[in-house]
Write a structure and sequence with these properties.
The complex is a heterodimer of chains A (519) and B (321). Chain A is α/β, with parallel strands linked by helices. Chain A contains 18 helices and 20 strands. Chain B has one domain: Orthogonal Bundle (ABC transporter involved in vitamin B12 uptake, BtuC), CATH 1.10.3470. Helix content of chain B is 76%, strand content 3%. Chain B contains 15 helices and 4 strands. A two-stranded antiparallel sheet of chain B has the order 1-4. Classes of the chains: A alpha/beta (519), B mainly alpha (321). Chains A and B meet through helix 11 and helix 12 of A and helix 10 and helix 11 of B.
Chain lengths: 519, 321
Amino acid sequence: MNRTTGHQKAVAAADSAYVLNLRNIAKRFGATQALEDVSLALRAGEVHALLGENGAGKSTLIKVMTGVHQPDRGEILLAGEPIAIGSAAEAQRHGIAAIYQEPLLFPDLNVAENIFICHQNRGAITDWRGMVREAERILASLGVSLDVRSPARGLTLAAQQSVEIAKAISLNVRVLIMDEPTASLSAHEVANLFRLVRDLRAKGVAILFVSHRMEEVFQIADTVTVFRDGRHISTRPVREVTPQSAIADMVGREMGLLERRTPAPHGEKLLSVQNLARAGVFEGVTFDVRRGEVLGFAGLIGAGRTDIGLALFGIEPATGGSIRLSDSERTIRSPRQAMALGIAYVSEDRRQLGLSLPMSISANITLPVLSRYLNRLGLIRTGQERATAEQFRKRLAIRTPSVDLAAGKLSGGNQQKVMLSKWLNTHPTLLILDEPTRGIDVGAKAEVHAMIGELAAEGIGIILISSDLPEVLAMSDRVLVMREGRQMAIFDRAEADSETVMFAAMGQTTQPAITGAAA
Amino acid sequence: MTLPPILRRWETLLLVLLVAIGAVNIAWSPFYLGVGNIVNLFQLSIEKIIVALTMTLIIVNGEIDLSVASVMGLSACVAAYLFHAGIALPWALLASLAAGAAAGAFNGFWVAYVGLPSLAVTLAGLIGYRGIARILVEDRAYGGFPDWFNALGQQPWIGPVTVSIVVFLVMFAGVAVVLHGSALGRLVYVMGNNVQAARYSGVRVKRVKLLLFTASGTVAALAGLLYAARLGSVRGDMAVGFELDIITIVLLGGVSIFGGSGNLVGVGLSILLILNLRNGMGLANITGNTQTSVIGALLVLSVLVPNMAQTLHTKWKGRET
């Protein structure tokens, strides 16, 4: 009995050592289980790193902690007391603050106003002088020299981050969430930021640190937690973690859920890209695509994969390098030009960039090649339009009562099929698919995968951009890996496995990197 | 909530209102149904309803052109100025149409190629083009046009129908075909819904916008000339404020101010509704100011009712699930 009591006491003590304790959190969006029974505990004076692939559930968890989303199940304990976080304001009251890759300052307000945006000394008259003094005090305590009267607009990203941190401190923050705070900072600025983080840690703040940069995690973190597919996989002290073990945890899903596509015979070279670049976005991209080949683009979100697609399709033309199509050099400056060269780009954003939602399915499908559907007077032959739409409806099994239905009324999977139809109807030789299965259900996903196989077999060259690593690995003949605007590697089918690709995507060589806290 | 789709349409509501107004007018005035009154009813607003047709294209496309009334004034002043400078009237008229096209293209350039909001660009046009018109004619009133010109705006041509009305009817049919049957019309809708999706589909969105604004300027210039012909004289402040009536007609016709929806049937009904309402109120000796207030109230309702209906509908649905 005594022992049990002792154990219970120990548990209680351990619990109270945690500032914020999330228990068995679950959150579902439509068909996607974003978080499933996830637990995470943050200790005072500890930097807790959270790792995971795209879609692992990190952002959702942050949104639960900051009151943006309400969990479907589970409880949140603050210093042992259960709390509800119903809104961003409540999160602030509990001392939970978050800073992001892109600081969210008001550009026209000055630094002091931004720091005190949530809690200016209310009353009839704002105490400007007091506010300025207090802002200066906080920034000084951070060792940051900034004119608190200057507007936020002109500040560097690093300075804006400092203002965000000052804002958090002014709120008496107990839990600070940092969501990829270093993604747009230089090495020097990162070093400064880490000094601030260590100061906060020394003051007893619990810090949740999300980053895709493995070396930073090992520099700053005390504890490392890995999520995968909305589940908690592991939590370990940093000394027990290596880049290899972390990445294995991040990708280590059971393969075989997705069957590898049988490769189609490859024909002649369709597209050859040399040193392609767009200033400030990506550079040094070199690859080629053959008829019947599927080239996968892997990488983390923001690595520049979509930007290459946009450059090839002329939406945001490349600023350097060369593009050769069927062995003649081309510059592609507009989507129309790209289409004339046989390129089609199926956008990742169906609703914003892909479809005109209030318009009918058939009008969407014929849009890029509307001139094919005109009679001699220049009027649209709607019968012919509908006939085309009907063909695709059968071929891609678009589930709809009629092709006259507004595209917006369809499910995500069927909208995706309408997008595919629209671009197949342009008879492309090179098809760029950007996240073709994002947010669609399993059945539709399998159908899209089958379609990719069929199209490759017909001799179309395909570039498959996807954040779904198993999908890229299963569908691609070769996998090009991007990281922060640079091409890291191209792997052949045989060498591409999830760990190798994820290593490249996270900027790790296949050899073990320096591990341990090098603070 | 259980109304059949046809009765939920905006056009149905307009039709019901139109019939009601017609009935009241018939009961009120013995002159209402006379051929003279019907022609007059169109004649009095003919220039506005002509410009409303191109304005429909612009608004469905998700833009707005506030400069149309100033372009009407500008075109009339250009024609009058050149004519009085000794240039043969046909050439002066052509030059004034060209000026309208140029004014529209200038608007279109800033909107399409520079990416400025059309509200700001055409507001500048509203002020700027009016300024040019006033510089050209100062505070004079130019008259003394040849009879054939004045006849364009005033004289019956086919039966009791004037040239202006024929122009309107032909243009109505033309715009209906363009908007609802042609590739251009399809692009106008697609861009109004989602200009990014149009761009990502290879639609030359800049060209379409430039074309629409140029058409708007040209048609406004034509309307300005017809107005000059009807009045028989030209002044610098001609057609001031017409843009508001024109936009009112289009919005009351069920064209969304956000672009992407609406049709020419609605605009046609809206034209009939407003003309008959004004005519009826005129026959009933209701003052112009009151007429304007009533039409203002109609416009507020036309924006409010569909939005409120939508909100209520959503709430209702939310409660069901």
